[in-house]
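Handout, section 4.2: multi-component inputs.
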Amino acid sequence: IVLTQSPGALSLSPGERATLSCRASQNINSNYLAWYQQKPGQAPRLLMYGSSNRATGIPDRFSGSGSGRDFTLTISRVEPEDFAVYYCQHYGDSPLFTFGPGTTVDIK
Amino acid sequence: QVQLQESGPGLVRPSETLSLTCAVSGDFLSHYYWSWIRQPPGKGLEWIGYISHSGNPNYNPSLKSRFSLSIDTSKKQFSLTLNFVTAADTAFYYCARTTSGWTSNFDYWGRGLLVTVSS
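Output:
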């Protein structure tokens, strides 16, 4: 299964809404879709798991949704610390884990 | 709190063997899988493989057979070995705790180690 993310980059002002898309090459189980945030010079951090469950310590401005092939990560109001690269990840067959190419959210 | 820390050389010569270790603190190695993930500078993430607490590995088949994973539960660490490195293996290497069950993802990560392959 191949994951495609769009847009490749998103320029926003603080306070704006961010909508990031992750599309799978075929239908997937939403339990096996996760999102990560990576800031420069840091390791990725788990944001969402099971498509719509926030990981520990993740603020509620982050939400996830989707089913089938299409999944969305939404940041209701972007804060300065949210500017980063976001990856979706799927747990499947072979290889067990695949990542999307990422969406960069930067400051307009 | 769970912490992971990678260690190993930052520079390896082409065709040599790379060995990395991930030390785990704040958790036992049982009940989870333990993964290695790499990221070439400025590029995306690639899962290399994981190893279970009982020593059973699972590898990304696209990476062929140059990788080998092992675990030492008594030392609370797991390791990666990569044979015959090339410049294409230059990357940040991360170790990560891998959950399993109704969902599966990487919930704790090490800070990463940049490995450069160069003569």
